[in-house]
């Protein structure tokens, strides 16, 4: 292969790529935050005594988990307006990714909740706490610490999924990479750099999350 | 929602949608099979390879797992054609999904092999089995049983990821559906429909996986 | 003097299995009652009913004259509201076999939680009370340790402090030493004995017969969901009346 | 030296055309499951010139950003996919002569309050224009109707709905899309008769093969002005609903 | 008669830790040798060297006159090929503390595997031999059970059948009963005793002193990687010569 590499287009556009990366991180962060809320509700739903709640939660989780995220993204962006829910690109993507994250996190939380010893709840009851307070002060904090490693994994895959926002022209990293590509046709260089940015970003995120895990870990 | 119009259009487009579904299945099956084949070697190299091999394979896995599949597909499609490897969009897409699948399977295989107690290998050695025989008759059958559930998960991930090939113009189920939508403007109906089809596909895979799991479970 | 705890004709089933078949019992302030009996006889279940961790189908439990868990509305028996039951639960303190400390909180925060959240105390007031009780169980030095950093015996002492800090009318102990290594049993029993000496009303399930004999004002032998024999420890251990009790005591190491 | 693409294509016996599949009236799969549209017809015109048979084409359905890469890597002989001509792109590939001039137009209901563009403009700020949401949308509308109210919508169908329900007096959109809409709903709408924001659509070929470029240019040129005019005009009528007037006979217009 | 097993000056280290510091030992056909010694003295390691599950740095092991594991090429010591070593491993049978049955195969398939794959026997021939040995260890009724469906003692008996079915020159037993509940120990020891009575050559590590005394023709006491004392069981257990052995025996329950 005698291809002369020329990264100058990429250096010229580094600001765009950086912006795109920033937006991707932002999208992942917001979505996982909202997704955590949805996931918690769904997890408690799946473990609820009420059959209807349980059914709804299980249906939500398995429907979302078995549907390609690209279909969800396109559905939310192009089809929901017909139902009167017309969100702009970025809110629409955040909405989709949150729903998607919620389904995955629900599974994580559910197994976290199931793994908690029953005694914690009873000890809370015994000192007169109500069920809600037990959830807030005991169950959720303990469970969250336990599932932090899988939460980190989820965060990383959500960050990677932000690349799909390019499909509805949300200007994140992949979007700019495609744009630079179409304009300059420096295909190898662009995709090499884009992949590398993702890989490095994932490593960095993983490192940060591990620090966080250590910080939050309960000493033993 | 315009249900009867939707049904008419669905009927009109049935051949295209079926062809798209066929491509989706073909892409998924090809990627999962090739990816699994490759992934087993990746897992073996990770478990039994020497240091440099393990390092190289680790890089391969980390790179693939750190890159969004979408970017991987675009990179495979565009970079390879520039390098002169003349792959069609279909082939490039399958290649990307295969690599993606192999990194997952590699990790699964490594984990499964690591989980088998060392005593198994020793017992096999002590009745005179060679490494190859030990692997084939003792380790692999046990590993397979542990691999199956996660492997089924990977397969559903691949089916879902096959939608990304629409971006490089492979007319799989999603793009076939988008083609219908672009003509009919029935986006709500058709996106719901296609989402449902994917759900069914993955649901079937899951059920099949469970059935096999039950069959081969060790009493 | 009116009794602190009155249990009348208490029945409790799990599905088809009737676990408590009519228990009657009264305790005065300062009483220390030990429940003994073979595995499955219903001791834990009885304690859990008193702490309202289990519903029960028939009979009543009165604490300081207040019927707990249920009210009678013209013949109809209704479970009290969740909030009401939570308040009543705080009137009894429970120490569990498995300690059940909250792993994400330090010792002192474990003790404070009920004070600030159930009793709505201010932080500093709760802190002072928690310190007092940690001192009492000999855990004041470890107040800022997390449960994972404490031995089983130390965890159990914190758990006892947590229960007792709520200022309950009666303390319930369910085999508080049976998850502990033999060397750690002693330090926990010392704490329980100390509380007994101090006049705390206590109902305890134990397999430590020697300890039950030393510490109790009354011993209750349960069998198959009924109270089979009861009396002062000298009588129960010294002159058991029924064969069942004799058999049980012969199998227990003293 | 390599033989010209022209010879390769002739030897092969069919043309490989790159185009999309989800944008009517340019390129889309019709209800008879065939790829159709104005872009497709341009390809068919070239195939007809090559083999005397417009159907001797192998289609490569590609996404927008595959247009240039697929050309340069020889995956396709020719790309006709509503490609806007820009100087930057012209550095990567070679554009043919343009075969359509795109612009923004205004769609109105038949028998509405305002007859045409002049009436809309005269009405000033009384007019509401629906437009597809976009960063430049407002600016773009104001370039034609400086005082009009601009309502931005999220999708094409919502924009048309705004027009239908009278919430908007006109919808501003690509002229091609506008014409296609009129073709699909004959008699309901009309074009206000003003276009702006011009851009040219051309086919593209791999750079460096003058022979092939010339050939395609000639075919397109004769489609628009010469022997193949009926083919071009027919296609134009099908996709844009407009009857083209026959090119002036006599002195060629391009040399005037 | 030439010896079946000859170990000469065997040395083995794990990193810096020298675990075997020069072992010499010979066994004749039909000998039953028990290895005793405190934890960490190197008994398991010795067995594993004989089965070639560990490499060793110095010394040699000869089985039926054939040097195993290594060959000497004009002074240079070379490890034999993997295939060659696999063949030699089959000359010794090993039973492990943890049984190590293959969980995905029935009892009889466990026994057959080595026969069909290492010895390349036909299926039906292997089946007949496997049946014979399962019969012998009293497991014939359970031939189609999976390991998970068997008790520990039953699993161990199948594991012994699996090793012995290979028709090894010598059987190695490494604390085959120490992972078993007390009731299950007896049934396994009965099998081992039966094989000993039958003239099988055996080298066994055991903590069951009474059993070692009954069954062995010779007892070897290991200490810190060396053979500290050896002799007939009557001598070792009845009249131990060194303090070390006396101390060790005093700590072992007989
Ligand atoms: N949640 C439950 N569901 C069903 N049965 C239960 C439940 N909890 C306890 N039981 C049954 O109730 C009976 C009494 O149990 P309980 O724990 O009160 O006995 P115990 O006297 O405390 O025994 P131990 O000394 O073993 O702790 C047992 O047969 C037990 O199996
Ligand atoms: N794979 C290994 N790596 C490092 N050290 C080892 C290894 N296997 C054994 N050792 C060490 O070698 C020494 C001898 O171990 P060995 O298992 O032979 O003792 P043993 O006499 O069988 O003891 P036990 O009665 O506890 O089974 C011990 O100090 C042990 O820690
Ligand atoms: Mg109990
Ligand atoms: Mg050992």
Automatic annotation (TrEMBL), chain A:
One of its GO terms (molecular function) is transmembrane transporter activity. CDD domains: TM_PBP2 (cd06261). Its main location: membrane. It is a multi-pass membrane protein. The keyword Nucleotide-binding does not apply. InterPro entries: AA_ABC_transptr_permease_3TM, ArtM/GltK/GlnP/TcyL/YhdX-like, MetI-like, MetI-like_sf. The keyword Transport applies. Keywords: Amino-acid transport, Cell membrane, Membrane, Transmembrane, Transmembrane helix, Transport. It holds the Pfam family BPD_transp_1. The chain crosses the membrane at residues 20-43, 55-80, 92-116, 191-209. GO terms for cellular component: ATP-binding cassette (ABC) transporter complex. Residues 21-209 form the ABC transmembrane type-1 domain. It is found in: Cell inner membrane; Cell membrane. GO terms for biological process: amino acid transport. NCBIfam families: HEQRo_perm_3TM. Part of the binding-protein-dependent transport system for glutamine; probably responsible for the translocation of the substrate across the membrane. Belongs to the binding-protein-dependent transport system permease family. HisMQ subfamily. This is Amino acid ABC transporter permease.
UniProtKB/TrEMBL annotation, chain B:
The chain crosses the membrane at residues 25-48, 69-90, 188-205. Its main location: membrane. GO terms for biological process: amino acid transport. Residues 21-209 form the ABC transmembrane type-1 domain. Keywords: Amino-acid transport, Cell membrane, Membrane, Transmembrane, Transmembrane helix, Transport. GO terms for cellular component: ATP-binding cassette (ABC) transporter complex. CDD domains: TM_PBP2. This is ABC transporter permease.
Automatic annotation (TrEMBL), chains C, E:
Signal peptide: none annotated. Keywords: Amino-acid transport, ATP-binding, Cell membrane, Membrane, Nucleotide-binding, Transport. It is a peripheral membrane protein. PROSITE patterns: ABC_TRANSPORTER_1 (PS00211), ABC_TRANSPORTER_2 (PS50893). It is found in: Cell membrane. Its main location: membrane. The keyword DNA-binding does not apply. Transmembrane segments: none annotated. Residues 5-249 form the ABC transporter domain. SUPFAM superfamilies: P-loop containing nucleoside triphosphate hydrolases (SSF52540). GO terms for cellular component: plasma membrane. One of its GO terms (molecular function) is ABC-type amino acid transporter activity. Belongs to the ABC transporter superfamily. PANTHER family: AMINO ACID IMPORT ATP-BINDING PROTEIN, GLUTAMATE_ASPARTATE IMPORT ATP-BINDING PROTEIN GLTL. This is ATP-binding protein. It comes from Thalassospira xianhensis MCCC 1A02616.
């Amino acid at each position: 292969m005698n291809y002369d590499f020329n990264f100058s287009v990429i250096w010229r556009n580094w600001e765009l790529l950086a912006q795109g990366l920033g937006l991707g991180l932002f999208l992942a962060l917001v979505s996982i935050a909202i997704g955590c809320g949805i996931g918690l509700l769904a997890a408690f739903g799946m473990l609820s005594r009420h059959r209807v709640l349980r059914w709804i939660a299980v249906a939500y989780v398995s429907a979302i988990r078995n549907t390609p995220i690209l279909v969800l993204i396109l559905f939310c962006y192009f089809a929901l307006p017909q139902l009167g829910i017309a969100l702009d690109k970025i809110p629409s993507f955040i909405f989709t990714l949150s729903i998607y994250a919620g389904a995955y996190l629900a599974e994580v939380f559910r197994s976290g909740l199931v793994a908690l010893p029953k005694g914690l709840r009873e000890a809370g009851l015994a000192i007169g706490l109500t069920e809600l307070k037990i959830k807030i002060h005991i169950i959720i904090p303990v469970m969250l610490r336990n599932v932090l490693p899988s939460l980190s994994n989820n965060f990383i895959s959500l960050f990677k999924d932000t690349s799909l926002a390019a499909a509805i022209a949300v200007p994140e990293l992949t979007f700019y990479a495609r744009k630079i590509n179409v304009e300059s046709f420096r295909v190898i260089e662009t995709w090499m750099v884009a992949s590398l940015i993702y890989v490095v970003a994932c490593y960095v995120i993983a490192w940060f999350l591990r620090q966080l895990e250590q910080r939050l870990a309960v000493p033993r | 929602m315009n249900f009867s119009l939707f049904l008419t259009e669905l009927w009109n487009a049935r051949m295209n949608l079926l062809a798209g579904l066929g491509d989706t299945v073909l892409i998924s099956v090809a990627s999962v099979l090739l990816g699994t084949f490759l992934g087993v070697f990746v897992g073996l190299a990770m478990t039994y390879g020497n240091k440099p091999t393990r390092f190289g394979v680790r890089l391969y896995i980390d790179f693939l797992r750190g890159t969004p599949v979408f970017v991987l597909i675009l990179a495979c499609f565009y970079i390879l054609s520039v390098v002169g490897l003349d792959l069609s969009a279909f082939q490039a897409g399958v290649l990307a999904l295969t690599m993606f699948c192999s990194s997952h399977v590699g990790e699964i295989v490594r984990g499964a092999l690591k989980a088998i107690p060392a005593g198994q290998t020793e017992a096999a050695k002590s009745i005179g089995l060679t490494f190859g025989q030990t692997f084939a008759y003792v380790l692999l059958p046990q590993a397979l049983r542990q691999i199956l559930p996660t492997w089924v998960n990977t397969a559903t991930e691949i089916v879902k990821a096959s939608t990304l090939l629409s971006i490089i113009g492979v007319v799989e189920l999603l793009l076939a559906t988008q083609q219908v939508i672009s003509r009919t403007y029935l986006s709500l109906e058709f996106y719901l429909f296609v989402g449902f089809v994917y759900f069914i596909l993955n649901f079937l895979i899951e059920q099949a996986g469970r059935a096999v799991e039950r069959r081969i479970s060790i009493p | 003097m009116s009794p602190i705890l009155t249990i009348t004709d208490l029945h409790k089933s799990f599905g088809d299995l009737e676990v408590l078949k009519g228990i009657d019992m009264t305790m005065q302030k300062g009483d220390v009652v030990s429940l003994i009996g073979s595995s499955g006889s219903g001791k834990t279940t009885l304690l859990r009913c008193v702490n309202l961790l289990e519903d029960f189908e028939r009979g009543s439990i009165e604490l300081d004259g207040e019927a707990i868990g249920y009210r009678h509305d013209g013949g109809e028996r209704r479970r009290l509201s969740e909030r009401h039951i939570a308040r009543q639960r705080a009137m009894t303190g429970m120490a569990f076999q498995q300690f059940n400390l909250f792993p994400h909180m330090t010792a002192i925060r474990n003790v404070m939680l009920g004070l600030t959240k159930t009793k709505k105390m201010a932080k500093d007031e709760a802190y002072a009370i928690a310190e007092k009780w940690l001192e009492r169980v000999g855990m004041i030095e470890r107040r800022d340790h997390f449960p994972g950093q404490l031995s089983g015996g130390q965890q159990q002492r914190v758990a006892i402090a947590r229960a007792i800090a709520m200022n309950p009318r009666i303390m319930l102990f369910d085999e508080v030493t049976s998850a502990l290594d033999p060397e750690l049993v002693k330090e926990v029993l010392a704490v329980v004995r100390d509380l007994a000496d101090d006049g705390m009303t206590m109902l305890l399930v134990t397999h430590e017969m020697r300890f039950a004999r030393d510490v109790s004002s009354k011993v209750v032998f349960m069998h198959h969901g009924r109270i089979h024999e009861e009396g002062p420890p000298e009588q129960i251990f010294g002159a058991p009346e029924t064969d069942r009790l004799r058999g049980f005591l012969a199998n227990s190491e003293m | 030296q390599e033989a010209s693409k022209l010879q390769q294509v002739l030897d092969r016996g069919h043309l490989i055309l790159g185009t999309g599949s989800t944008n009517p009236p340019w390129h889309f799969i019709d209800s008879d499951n065939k790829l159709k549209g104005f872009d497709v017809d341009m390809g068919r015109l070239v195939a007809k010139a090559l083999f005397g048979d417009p159907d001797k084409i192998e289609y490569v359905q590609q996404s927008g950003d595959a247009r240039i890469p697929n050309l340069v890597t020889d995956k396709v002989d020719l790309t006709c996919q509503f490609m806007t001509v820009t100087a930057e792109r012209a550095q990567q590939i070679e554009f043919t002569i343009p075969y359509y001039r795109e612009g923004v137009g205004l769609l109105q209901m038949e028998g509405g309050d305002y007859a045409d563009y002049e009436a809309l403009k005269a009405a000033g700020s009384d007019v509401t224009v629906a437009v597809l949401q976009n960063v430049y949308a407002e600016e773009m509308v104001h370039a034609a109707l400086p005082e009009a109210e601009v309502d931005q919508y999220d999708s094409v169908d919502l924009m048309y709905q705004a027009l239908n329900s009278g919430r908007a007096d006109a919808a501003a959109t690509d002229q091609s899309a506008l014409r296609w809409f009129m073709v699909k709903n004959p008699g309901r709408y009309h074009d206000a008769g003003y276009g702006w924001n011009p851009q040219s659509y051309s086919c593209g070929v791999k750079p460096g093969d003058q022979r092939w470029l010339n050939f395609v240019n000639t075919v397109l040129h004769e489609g628009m002005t010469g022997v193949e005019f009926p083919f071009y005009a027919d296609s134009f009528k099908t996709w844009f609903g407009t009857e083209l007037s026959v090119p002036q006979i006599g002195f060629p217009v391009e040399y005037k």
